[in-house]
Structure to design on (168 residues):
C-alpha cells in the first residue's frame, strides 16, 4: 500500500498543531503558577537572533495551513500576525485546524508533481509537490514547533517528549 500525499500531510499537520496547542497550555499554566507575566513568556526567544514564542506559533500554523492549500492547488487563507496573548494563539491554531480539516483527500492526493512556488526571504522558491512537502513543509513545521517547545522548556515549563509527541 502506498502512502498518499494527503495521509503524509494533513494528519501530520493536525497532530503537530494539536501538540503545539497542548504545550502552549502548559506554558500558560506555568506562567500563572510562577507569577510570570504571560507577555514575558510569549516574547521569550532561545537566543537574541531567533524569533519569539509568538512568532514560532504563527509560522507553524502558516506552514500547516498554507502547505495544505498549496498542495491542493488553491490560494492559502491569509492570517494576520497580530496575536499577543495565549488565547489569541489558541484561536489561531484552532482556525488553522478547522481550515485544514476542510480539505478533502482528493484535493491533496495526486499533488506529487504539482508546481508550487513560494516567496521566501531568499526570493522565489520552486518545488514539485512531493519535494515541497518532504523537504520544505515538514522540516519547517517541525522546526517551529520544536523551537516553541524549546522556548517553553528552557523557561522552566515542565514538559517533556511525550507532551511534544502527543498520545499515540
Amino acid at each position: 500500500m502506498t502512502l498518499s500525499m494527503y495521509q503524509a500531510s494533513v494528519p501530520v499537520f493536525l497532530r503537530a498543531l494539536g501538540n503545539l496547542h497542548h504545550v502552549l497550555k502548559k506554558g500558560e499554566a506555568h506562567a500563572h503558577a510562577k507569577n510570570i507575566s504571560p507577555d514575558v513568556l510569549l516574547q521569550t526567544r532561545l537566543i537574541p537572533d531567533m524569533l519569539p514564542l509568538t512568532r514560532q506559533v504563527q509560522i507553524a500554523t502558516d506552514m500547516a495551513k498554507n502547505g495544505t492549500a498549496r498542495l491542493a492547488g488553491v490560494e492559502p487563507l491569509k492570517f494576520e500576525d497580530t496575536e499577543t496573548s495565549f488565547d489569541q494563539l489558541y484561536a489561531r491554531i484552532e482556525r488553522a485546524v478547522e481550515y485544514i480539516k476542510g480539505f478533502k483527500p482528493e484535493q491533496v492526493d495526486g499533488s506529487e508533481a504539482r508546481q508550487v512556488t513560494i516567496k521566501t526571504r531568499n526570493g522565489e522558491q520552486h518545488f514539485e509537490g512531493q519535494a515541497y512537502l518532504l523537504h520544505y513543509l515538514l522540516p519547517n513545521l517541525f522546526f517551529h514547533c520544536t523551537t516553541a517547545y524549546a522556548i517553553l522548556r528552557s523557561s522552566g515549563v515542565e514538559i517533556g517528549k511525550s507532551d511534544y509527541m502527543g498520545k499515540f
